[in-house]
Amino acid sequence: MPRVFVTGSSDGLGKMAAQLLIEQGHRVVLHGRSEARGAQAMAGVPGADGVVTGDLSTIKQMHEVAAQVNARGPFDAVIHNAAVGYRESRRIETEDGLPQVFAVNTLAPYVLTALIQKPNRLIYLSSGLHYEGDGSLKDLTWQQRPWVGHQAYSDSKLHDTLLAFAIARRWPGVFSNAVDPGWVATKMGGSSATDDLDQGHRTQVWLATSEDPGAKVSGECFFHMRPRKPKPITHDTEAQEKLIEACRKLSGVELPS
Q1: Cβ-count burial of 49 within 10 angstroms (0-12 exposed, 13-18 middle, 19+ buried)?
Q2: Around 120, how many Cα atoms within 13 Å sit in the side-chain half-sphere?
Q3: Over 70: is that where the pLDDT of 1 sits?
Q4: Close Cβ partners of 45 (under 8 Å, ≥ 6 residues apart)
Q5: 86, 157, 216, 242: which is the annotated catalytic residue?
Q6: Is the pLDDT of residue 189 over 80?
Q7: Greatest extent of the chain over all pairs of C-alpha atoms, in Å
C-alpha cells in the first residue's frame, strides 16, 4: 500500500488528490501551512494518516516540514502541490527577503526534494502558464524587474518543470514528472476557469501510485494523464543546472547526487 505525502493539501487540488488516494486505499500524510490549516486538512480528508505543518514561504520552515516528513517516512511518493497564485499585485517578501511566489512555488519544492528521504516517485505541479515563463532564468528573485504577478507565477511553473526534469536526469532510480492540471475552478484558478475540475487531480494520483507502464516513466510533462510537450527550454541541461545552482545558493541546501 503506497504511502504518499501531499504538500498544500488543506484545500484545492491537493485536498482532492489526497481524498482520491485514500478512496483508492493508499496511505496519505497531509500538509498545511499552519496549525489551523493542518486541522482544516485533517477535517477535510477523513482517513489521512496525519498532517505536517509549516509555512513553505520560509527556508526555516521548509527544513521543519522536511524533518517532520522524514520522521514519518519513508514515502513511496511525494506530490509537490503547494503554490501561491498569480494575482499578487505587488512583490510580497518573505522573512528571507524573497518574493513569496518564488519561495513557495520554486524554492520550497527544491528544498523539500533535497531534504526529504528519496521516494520512488516525485510529482511537481506545473501549469500551462509555464510556456510563458522566462527561460533566461535572469533575476529569479525580481530584484531588477518591475513586479508582474502573472509573470512571476509563470516563471515559477517553468521552474517546477525544470526541477522535475533535472531530478529525472540526476536520480535515475526515481520517477520524476511534471503535471499541468489545467486551468480549473479552485480558489487559485478562480470561477472563470474553463478546464475540467474533476480531471485536475487525477494525473497526480495516477503518477504517484499506478503500476500502469504509462505512469512509470520519468522526465515527462502530463496533462490529463497524457504526455504533453513542454516548453523546449525545460529539457535543456544547462538551464536545469542553472536553476539548481541558484536554488542551492539561495537556500544553502545541497541537492544530493
Answers
A1: middle
A2: 13
A3: no
A4: 9, 15, 18, 19, 22, 28, 30
A5: 157
A6: no
A7: 49
HSE (side-chain half, CA atoms, 13 Å) at 188: 22
| Per-residue pLDDT reduced to its tens digit, 71-97 | 998 999 999 999 998 777 778 899 999
- What's the CA gap between 146 and 159, in Å, rounded? 19
pLDDT recorded at residue 167: 98
- In sequence order, the 6+-apart residues with CB closer than 8 A to the CB of 144 are none
Q: Which amino acid is at 18?
A: A
109, amino acid identity: P
Q: What is the per-residue pLDDT across 231-254, written as a single tens digit (0 to 9) for each?
A: 999 999 999 999 999 999 999 999
Q: Which three cell numbers stand for residue 177?
A: 514528472
Cα 227 from Cα 71, distance rounded (Å): 34
DSSP structure class, residue 253: -
Rounded-to-integer distance, Cα 253 and Cα 15, Å = 28
CA 210 to chain centre: 19
| Span 189-205, average pLDDT | 68
Q: Tell me, yes or no, if 157 is annotated catalytic.
A: yes
Q: Which residues pair with 221 in a beta bridge?
A: 178
Q: Residue 30 in 3-state DSSP?
A: strand
Q: Is 229 a catalytic residue?
A: no
- The catalytically annotated residue of 138, 153, 231, 242 is 153
Question: 167-176, 195-204, 245-254 — which is least confidently predicted?
Answer: 195-204
Residue 190 is predicted with a pLDDT of 46
pLDDT score, position 194:
42
Nearest to 180 by CA among 210, 163, 202: 202
10, 72 contact by CB (below 8 A) = no
